[in-house]
Amino acid sequence: MTIFGHKAPLTAVVGLAIILLNLLVALAGPYLAPYGETQVVGGGWDPASAAAWFGTDQIGRDMFTRLVYGARMTIGIAFVTTILSFAIGITLGLVAAVAGRWVDALISRAVDVVLSIPLLIWALMILNVLGQSLFSLVFTIGCLDSTRVFRLARALGLNLVSLDFVEVARMRGEGLWWVISREILPNAAAPLMSEFGLRFCFNFLFIAALSFLGLGVPLPYADWGGMVKDNVGGISFGLPAALYPAAAIALLTVGINLVVDWFLSIDARPSGAQAEM
Amino acid sequence: MADDRILCLEKLRVETIAGRVLVDDVDVELKRGEILGLIGESGAGKSTIGLASMAYARAGMRITGGTITLAGTELRASTALYRRHTRGKSIAYIAQSAAASFNPGMTLMDQVCEAPVVHGVMGRAEAEVYAKKLFRTLQLPNPDTIGDRYPHQVSGGQLQRVMAAMAMSCRPDVIVLDEPTTALDVTTQIEVLALLRDLIAEFGTAGLYITHDLAVVAQIAHRIMVLRHGKTIECGDTVQILEHPRTDYCRALVNERRDAEHLTLSVPDRAAPPILRVRDVTAGYGTAAAARNAVAVVKNASFDLAKGETLAIVGESGSGKSTMARIVTGLLPRWSGDIELAGKSLPPALGRRPNDILRRLQMVHQMPDTALNPRQTLAQIIGRPVALFFGRGRAEVRARVLELLRLVGLPEEFADRKPGQLSGGQKQRVCIARALAAEPEVIICDEPTSALDPLVAEEVLKLLKGLQDRLGLAYVFITHDLGTVRRIAHRTAVMLKGEIIAQGPTEQIFSPPYHPYTEKLILSVPEMHTTWLDEILQKRGGAAGLVAGAAERPAEVTPAARAAAADAGAVAETERMAAREVLGEGRGAAGLEALQTEVRNLKGMMEI
């Protein structure tokens, strides 16, 4: 099978199918869901039935409906967050690589300070101060995650900035913005694209983790991490409710990673090429 | 000795996995003790053949046809395990870049001893003794302790010699030398070349010598095979190829090389005022404030460049010639001294120079691959300076781009291509077009032809010369290749360790009385006859050769060498014969004694 002019292995096709399915569910959410997002349709932790396909959650809301709305919320937030973190990370990273030693030292050390404390702790701190809202969640995770993107963008930028065509541009008197946007960014796009997929996954898991700790998506919105947390009590009674959102998280993560693996392999070498021993 | 042929490739065919043919029905025959030179431009398939003779194909390639017979065994039909044992033991490979071929985390001794120990030829202790002997043979400094060093602690020439020792560590029947001297400076090249030749002669090994330089292969090969686009063009004795090439392509190759040996330009009579004046410039890496600790790379350099003239700056790697280019362009701010363009002093740093000066001073880089942004089309690349410096509209820029493409001899359709779709020579033309787009007065060419094949490089030189005549450009031409200097430069400056030690009209620099270093440089450039290396070694006092007698290289393979390679047991006998020969040539009893000790050592090793 060929996608975008590149031969895609079976794993990549499976990964793409998973992602497309998730996107479809996220976009068509209200039409797919049989009930309202917060509508109580039965007792707590009812078993699966024809009316509620995956049973109900701890206070009797339909699990399937919550999963569908959760896809919307979780994927949407992760996507916005990742875009934000890439915008910040790439800009700062490439400026650090191009602008010179002092700027680089300043930004890099600032990033080191952020990275020296675990991101989850940072997030807990900031969210406690800012209060729980969708905006503060996206903003906090985007900023924190941009430090990782910064590292990659700066490394890529440093490799590219030493190439002759960048030197030629500087000798022509081009400004910083031209060098970054025209000479460096297009050449760093491929590795950054695949990093986007990976960071999307991490952000998505990060939000799930925060929700699990009670600092993620505010109630009563459905999101997968929060649903795991809400339903985790049922596990000790042998009830599977917490496993459905957990499985949804796992499935999307695996799907994205399958596609990213394929992205990374495209640039490496012609597919199937090995030295003939 | 039933079969004299040690290595035989028949109807060899190598393709990429996409189906493009890299090597097309090539036959190679190698007798014991014989050296065959493989010549061709890049993409001719010479390295591919070299690797295929070990039945190995790089990632993305497949050997799709033909037979590879090494010492009577067909390698393609044998098992992977057998091939693995053959490599390194019976057939060894010396790669072009020694620096990239060593494991930086292992000592040299560990790496040299690896093959004999893995292949079970010797134990570790014997391998070390033998390696030290090889180091001594290859005239490495401190042969007993150099093995304890790491690759970054020795020079490029020494590393290349250690790699030769590594290849010889199992006494292979065949050794594949893939451009072993190309990455070295000319003066180092001679030493390595002489040592390799003597080593091969001494051990009776057969060799496949891959290079793009006819003059180099003339010194070492018995026969030469010329390749182009994966096909054999011509194959014959070294002398025949050099003196009476049969095909047009070979003739062009030989003539190109011979042209480089003669001067073509002389200084114009008219005394044009200098457009670029460099006065007592000193600079290095690190800022002037920290200069007390930093070492100046260029010291007190001065030169003048007149309109319409070419000044060549020659020197070996590390002489500071490329740094000179960076100082003039402002990429590296000078510490002291003055640079004037058309009478006006230039600010040291690039950022302080006004746009008009940036426009008038352009640069062409060495590697066209990295000098062009792979994500931009040629129209964008060439059009940008036009738009930036002259502020023209879109249609005007496009028209100018097409005009510039025509000017550098590229078809107009190329405007919408990207650099990846062009060949090396075409890319360099694009770089020149981009420099011309700014309508400069001075172009600094930093080795613009050294990454190109000889015939392509010649075309680029012709283009540069033609442009100079038409547009009155002045070039600062930085190069290490004296042949290029002879063809393009009106004036020449010779750099050594950051200082200009001689400068003047090219004619004057290249005729006696020379500066001693200039003479060494000139003498180090291989010439197109087979006896050049021996003459040079003699002039230098014959210091480089191990077996001084090897200077009279027989056109035929010596019987001793054949015997040596044919039978491992006869090695000692060969050594003795060699010793006798040496004695006959009056090298003295000391040399004989040393050789006999070696013979004893070798015998001892074999019994173990």
Automatic annotation (TrEMBL), chain A:
InterPro entries documented for this protein: BP-dependent_transpt_permease, MetI-like, MetI-like_sf, OppC_N
GO CC annotation, single: plasma membrane
Bilayer-spanning residue ranges: 12-33, 73-99, 119-144, 200-222, 242-264
UniProt keyword terms in alphabetical order: Cell membrane, Membrane, Transmembrane, Transmembrane helix, Transport
Localisation per UniProt entry: Cell membrane
Signal peptide: none
Its membrane topology: Multi-pass membrane protein
The ABC transmembrane type-1 domain, residue ranges: 71-260
UniProt GO BP: transmembrane transport
Primary location recorded for the protein, binned into one broad class: membrane
Alphabetized PANTHER family for the sequence: OLIGOPEPTIDE TRANSPORT SYSTEM PERMEASE PROTEIN APPC, PEPTIDE ABC TRANSPORTER PERMEASE PROTEIN
Family: Belongs to the binding-protein-dependent transport system permease family.
Protein name as catalogued: ABC transporter permease
From TrEMBL, chain B:
Classification via SUPFAM superfamilies: P-loop containing nucleoside triphosphate hydrolases
Entry keyword Cytoplasm: no
GO cellular component: plasma membrane
UniProt domain ABC transporter: residue ranges: 7-254, 276-522
GO biological process: peptide transport; transmembrane transport
Protein localization: Cell inner membrane
Pfam families in the record: ABC_tran, oligo_HPY
CDD domains per the UniProt record, alphabetical: ABC_NikE_OppD_transporters
GO molecular function terms listed in the Swiss-Prot or TrEMBL record: ATP binding; ATP hydrolysis activity
Domain of life: Bacteria
Main location: membrane
Record's bilayer topology term: Peripheral membrane protein
Keywords for this protein: ATP-binding, Nucleotide-binding, Transport
PROSITE patterns referenced in this protein's UniProt entry, alphabetically: ABC_TRANSPORTER_1, ABC_TRANSPORTER_2
The family this protein is said to belong to: Belongs to the ABC transporter superfamily.
PANTHER family xrefs: D,D-DIPEPTIDE TRANSPORT ATP-BINDING PROTEIN DDPF-RELATED, TRANSPORT ATP-BINDING PROTEIN
Protein name: ABC transporter ATP-binding protein
